[in-house]
Specification:
Shape: globular
CATH topology of the largest domain: Rossmann fold
Oligomer: single chain
Strand content: 15-25%
CATH architecture of the largest domain: 3-Layer(aba) Sandwich
Largest sheet: 6 strands, mixed
Bound molecules: 2'-monophosphoadenosine-5'-diphosphate
Helix content: 25-40%
Number of domains: 2
Distance between the termini: 22 Å
Order of helices and strands: EHEHEHEHEEHEHEHEEEHEHHH
């Protein structure tokens, strides 16, 4: 039986968002806290945009070990850190804050790491040298995916976005292996690809479907979608029907949480089927 209260030694962390009620992170971290028997709590923190600076400073004052940051605060949090890790700087957003015993705020971004860990978990046969990647979308999620793929050595990475200028700006910022190509020709760019990643919101419950003809995609290509509501998006269903290996987006959410939990609570947690069940049920 849980006592219904926390003692003075409990370690505290949470997720800052607006709104935050939809966040699955409290269930996720709550599952791990129970699994590892840790004296701690992970709470939803609804912070209106104008209150972000005082809320983040307040975390340190209140003795929090840190927090996750979610929509719409990930970019704004960047400027509020005392120290930024280089990956967060390149992605241009913070999703994990670690607070030192001296109260210093370290901003990290574990989304790209989570993406890669999920891909390796779900498609162990895929490797960075397997061939070109096609990435759809040029928002914040795409930035994390691009950094992860570039750092893994994937090249070229074809980037397609409805608003071409956003894709072109990202390609210019990241350079080298990221090449912006027109959204309208997306089905053709699948020829020769070893990996297809959807980072747009298309296919999410309540959003329009992603219109994409997969017939040019080589049979051994891996298809992954960052959308996880529904778990099997129409894109993943179509890819599965063609015999592709598919990787759903829930795993990225689970894996991106691992480094934060370890930093705050002192145990490196494991992503398991029971965790997926706890988070998605
Ligand atoms: P996130 O941070 O989750 O990536 P975002 O920055 O709002 O969210 O980006 C959403 C992505 O989905 C963008 O690439 C967006 O394309 P635009 O840059 O053209 O807006 C894409 N997207 C959203 N709705 C779309 C639609 N109906 N058709 C095509 N792309 C769409």
């Amino acid at each position: 039986m849980t006592p219904g209260f926390l003692g003075g030694t409990a370690r505290l962390a949470g997720v800052i968002g607006w709104p935050v009620a939809h966040s699955r992170s409290p269930r996720l971290h709550g599952h791990w806290l129970r699994t590892y028997g840790i004296d701690g709590a992970y709470v939803p923190l609804a912070v209106a945009p104008g209150h972000l600076p005082s809320a983040i400073r307040g975390l340190a004052a209140l003795g929090f070990r840190g927090a996750n940051v979610t929509v719409p605060h990930k970019e704004a949090a960047l400027a509020l850190m005392d120290h930024l890790d280089p990956v967060a700087q390149r992605i241009g957003a913070v999703n994990t804050i670690v607070i030192g015993s001296d109260g210093r705020l370290e901003g990290r971004n574990t989304d790209g790491e989570g993406f890669m860990a999920n891909l390796r978990d779900g498609a162990p046969d895929w490797h960075p040298g397997a061939g070109p990647a096609v990435v759809l979308g040029a928002g914040g999620a795409a930035r994390a995916v691009l950094v992860a793929l570039m750092d893994a050595g994937v090249a070229p990475i074809y980037l397609l976005n409805r608003t071409f200028d956003r894709a072109a700006a990202l390609a210019a910022a990241f350079g080298g292996s990221v090449v912006a190509v027109p959204w309208e020709a997306r089905s053709e760019w699948l020829a020769g690809a070893a990996l297809l990643v959807n980072t747009t919101s298309l296919g999410m419950t309540g959003q329009p479907p992603l219109e994409l003809d997969l017939s040019a995609l080589p049979g051994d290509a891996v298809v992954t979608d960052l959308v996880y509501v529904p778990l099997e998006t129409p894109l993943l269903a179509a890819a599965r029907a063609r015999g592709h290996r598919v990787v759903d987006g829930l795993g990225m959410l689970l894996h991106q949480a691992v480094p934060g939990f370890e930093a705050w609570f002192g145990v490196r947690p494991v992503v398991t089927a029971a965790l997926r069940e706890a988070v998605f049920s």
